[in-house]
Amino acid sequence: MNSLKIARVALRVAGRSQPVLRRGYADVAPDKLRLSLALPHQTIYKSQDVVQVNIAAESGEMGILAQHVPSIEQLKPGLVEVIEEAGGNKQFFLSGGFATVQPGSVLSINAVEGYPLEDFSAENVRNQISEAQKIAGGSGSEQDKAEANIELEVLESLQAALK
């Protein structure tokens, strides 16, 4: 007997035809998402209520609202936008990490590195891209080329976020 059949039998024996826990429609959901955004050296948000968080996941760009389906997403280098209750928004560039959406409108984001977007200069990013391209296309070691290609991926994501 597979596990789904066992669950159905157990529910019938208990006198219920449907599971007690069901995901409802968003219109009955609380309108706040509890966000924790942590780096190894700093906590940016600690269980703070926000309206929405937009992330750059490996599976694609995602907007997360209250009552989002629980999931775990690997983050690629990119922009995380936090829309706060007061109506403002904050943008951070993260080098990667993980976002975990838990039941009860709880979102935890853990990243190795992250900085406010306004800390970056478009001109400096362009200069670093040029340098990394020279190394990636040069005659250096395979390790140097691989590191330059990783750097290029991150810098190009940052350049796109700055536009």
Descriptive overview:
With 163 residues, this protein is an alpha+beta fold. It has 2 domains: 33-118, ATP Synthase, domain 1 (Sandwich), CATH 2.60.15; 121-162. It contains 3 helices and 9 strands, in the order H-E-E-E-E-E-E-E-E-E-H-H. Strands 1, 2, 3, 4, 5, 6, 7, 8 and 9 form a 9-stranded mixed beta sheet that branches. Strand 7 (97-102) and strand 8 form a beta hairpin.
Task: Provide a concise account of the structure shown.
Belongs to the ATPase epsilon chain family. With 163 residues, this protein is of the alpha+beta class.
What is the chain-wise order of helices and strands?
Answer: HEEEEEEEEEHH
How many structurally independent domains?
2
Using DSSP, what is the number of strands? 9
Helix/strand class: alpha+beta
CATH architecture of the largest domain: Sandwich
Average pLDDT figure: 85
Shape: globular
Beta-strand level of the residues, as a percent range?
35-45%
Q: What is the CATH H-level superfamily of the largest domain? A: F0F1 ATP synthase delta/epsilon subunit, N-terminal
Largest sheet: 9 strands, mixed
Which fold name is given in CATH as the topology of the largest domain?
ATP Synthase, domain 1
Percent in helix: 25-40%
Helix count from the secondary structure assignment: 3
Please state the oligomeric state of the protein chains shown.
single chain
**How far apart lie the N and C ends?**
56 Å
CATH class of the largest domain: Mainly Beta
Rg over CA atoms, rounded to whole Å, is: 21 Å
Low-confidence stretches: 25-29
Keywords: ATP synthesis, CF(1), Hydrogen ion transport, Ion transport, Membrane, Mitochondrion, Mitochondrion inner membrane, Transit peptide, Transport
Protein name: ATP synthase subunit delta, mitochondrial
Pfam families: ATP-synt_DE_N (PF02823), ATPD_C_fung (PF21334)
Domain ATP synthase F1 complex delta/epsilon subunit N-terminal: 33-106
